[in-house]
Amino acid sequence: MSIVPNFPYDESVTRFINQFYPTATIRDWNNWIWQLKNSIHTTQQLTDILGKTEGELISSLPENHLPFQITPYFASLLSRLPGRHPLYRTVIPTKEELIVSPGEVADPLNETGDSPTRLIVHRYPDRVLFLVTGFCSAYCRYCTRSHMVGKQHKSHASTREWDMGIEYIAQNKQIRDVLISGGDPLTLPDFRLEYLLSKLRAIPHVEIIRIGTKVPVVLPMRVTNSLTRMLKKYHPLMMSVHFAHPDELSVETQEACNRLADAGIPLGSQTVLLKGINDEVETFKKLNQGLLKVRVRPYYIYQCDPIPGSLHFRTPVSKGLEIIQGLRGYTSGYAVPHFVIDAPGGGGKIPLLPNYLQSIENGEVILKNYEGNTYTYPDIA
Questions:
Q1: Most buried pick, 21, 177, 242, 373, via CB within 10 A?
Q2: What residues are labeled active site?
Q3: What family is it from (predicted)?
């Protein structure tokens, strides 16, 4: 396993380590295993580091609830930001998440109903979701899989269970695209991740392999040289990285994204629209322009899924349309993602757009541009 002592870090990190992890070295800090072993699991631990945070924190989580865990790295990032920064709410549990509102259910996307065998969700004809782990290095409080991630009896899939999923994919020749997710696959050691990739790449009809992860954002030192060397062997390989806010684009996270891009991995971002966190046009513009600079293509804005206790995170759907309208024409087309609702009940991702098409009639298409001006395009029968 390659640990890179000179992985870049913000200058405030040295002070943070000296204050809160005085026996650790920079080499320890840049070791992703050390980060996981020293993860913060209680709100009291985090309060000791950050002081008072916004909202009433949950000191003791109910049994079988989504656990609390963040890495020392992400705690250090939060400590660099102004007090009560919006990012705090993305990872720190508050009592609002214990309030269940109408329409909220544990598995809103009905992934269980579309699971023909353990670990596989087969909703679309030519692609499957492969849930290879239930473990994450940080647990987002709005996670659509809060019903299964971080649970001891669901977190650690065995190789035998993986093999059952791999066999399902091998037997269904219409499957050309496999998304490896969880949990977070990049929390797996290199040798286990390579086992998965090598087995999937050996299936002739599997054309594309994708990995869904938040690790570059919350555990960027996981992106070691040995990891990128291994990943390069299994192209075409793509990666979807979950960002929530432009302030996550630290020097460490930028380095991780650049390393992955240098390995030839196309990177896309997936961002959940969150009330009071990123629900402003300027926030998305800053995030998406920053992502492009580290070769991450903004791909999706997700309407927040109605998991139990999510009302305080969810915006009106109109807010997502407003953000798309505020981006289209005002920044690079590459910086404008798709706004989608992952339909409750298993309907899949449904894209939504502002109403740019006004009408089609009498051989004319009436269009409205980003400034609200109207134009006519000559149609053909």
A1: 242
A2: 123-124, 127, 136, 140, 143, 145, 305, 342, 349
A3: Belongs to the radical SAM superfamily. KamA family.
3-state secondary structure of 221: helix
Residue 349 host element (H or E): strand 348-352
Question: What is the distance between the alpha carbons of residues 178 and 126, in angstroms, rounded to a whole number?
Answer: 9
Contact partners, residue 70, CB within 8 Å, separation at least 6:
39, 40, 46, 91, 92, 137, 138, 139, 218
pTM for the whole structure: 0.94
Helices 72-80, 12-20: axis angle to 10 degrees equals 120
Rounded Cα gap, residues 255 and 14, in angstroms: 18
Cα separation, 84 vs 271, whole angstroms: 21
C-beta atoms surrounding 46 within 10 Å? 22
Angle between helix 159-171 and 190-201 (nearest 10): 20
Burial of residue 177 (CB within 10 Å: 0-12, 13-18, 19+) is middle
pLDDT at 53 over 70: no
| Residue 94 · residue 55 · CB < 8 Å | yes
d(CA 259, CA 218): 16
- The CB density around residue 235, as the number of other CB atoms within 10 Å, is 14
Which CATH fold would you assign to the domain 120-354? TIM Barrel (3.20.20)
pLDDT digits (tens, 9 = 90+) for 237-253: 999 999 999 999 999 99
CA separation for the pair 90, 86 (Å, rounded): 7
Query: How far, CA to CA in Å, does 318 sit from each of 221, 350, 368?
Result: 37, 15, 18
SS3 9: coil
Higher pLDDT: 27 or 4? It is 27
Residue 170: enclosing H or E segment and its boundaries? Answer: helix 159-171
